[in-house]
Amino acid sequence: MELEKLAQKIVASPRGILAADWSVGTATKKFAKFGINSTEESRRDYRQMLFETEGLEKYISAVILHEETIRQKTKEGRPLIEIIKNKGIEAGIRLDIGQEEIPGFGGEQMTFGLDRIRERLSEFKSLGASFAKWRAAFIIGRGKPTRQAIEANSILLSLYALFCIEAEILPIVEPDVVMDGNHSLSDCQKATEEVLKTLFFKLLDYGVDRKKIILKPNMILPGIESKKALPNEVALATISVFKKTVPVDVPGIAFLSGGQSLDEASKNLNEIEKRAFDVPWQITFSFARALQEPVLEVWQGREENKKKAQEKLIESAKIASLARRGKLE
To answer: How much is the pLDDT for 17?
Structure first.
C-alpha cells in the first residue's frame, strides 16, 4: 500500500493505535506493579492475549510492536504479528532503541537507533511491519528544553523518517514533551510549540514528505506534580499550539497518553475533538499506558483471567474510540 494511503487508513475514524511497544525493562516495571513475573514467556502470553481479543479491529487500526514481540511466536509456533494482520490491523515496529542523557545538559536526552537502520528496516519489513515509530523525549525545567536538545532530536527524527520512507515503511514521528515535573500548562504550551516548530522546519529542511508521516505528540498538560487542568483548558491550549505549528498536509495527529490514565486521556481527547471542528487533520489516539494498565490489572498474569482482561481491553478501546470522535458522555 502507498504510504499516503496507509497513513490515511491508520488515522481514519473511528479507530486508533494500540502502542504495545514497551521495552523489556518497561514491561517488567509494569508487570511488577500488578505482581506479575516478567519473563519472555509471560510477556508473550500477555501480548498474545491482547492481539487475540475478539473485535479488537473495531477500535484499533494499528499496533506498535517492540523488537522482542515482532519475532515472538505462540506456543503453537504462530507468529504474533500474524494474529494482528489477520484481523486487518496494521503492524509496526518501535525503531528507536531508547534515550541517553546528553552530557552537560542537565538530564536532557537524545534518542538513538540510526545504526544499521537500513538493515533493521529491511528485516522488520520482511517480518511484516508496515510502519515504524521513533520517540524523542523533551523535559521542561529552567531553560529546558534547550535549543540544542530540540534541534538534535528534530534532526534525528527527520533522518529516521527519511530512511523509513526510502524503505517504504510509514514513519510515526513522536516528539514527546513529558509530564514529569511541576511545570504549568502554559510552560508545556510554550515548550511544545517550540519543539513542533523546530521539528517541522527540520522535516522540511531534510525533504521529508509530510503526507507520508503520522505525528504522535503529547497533549498540552501541566506537570504531573502540578494541579491538573480541566479538559476544556487542555483542549484550548492543545488546539492553539497545533494550529500554529502543524502543516495542513500532515494526514493525522495521534495523541499519546503519556502519564495519563484512560479516564484522563480520553476526557481530554474528547474535548480536543469537540473543539477541533475546523482543523485539517484527523485526530486520533496512540495509547500505551491508558489502554494496557486497565488490562494488566484484570489479567494479573493468570490464564483464568484472560477472557475478562480481553473484555476490559475492548471496553477501554471503545472509550478511546468514542473520545476520538468527540462522543464520550
So the answer is: 98
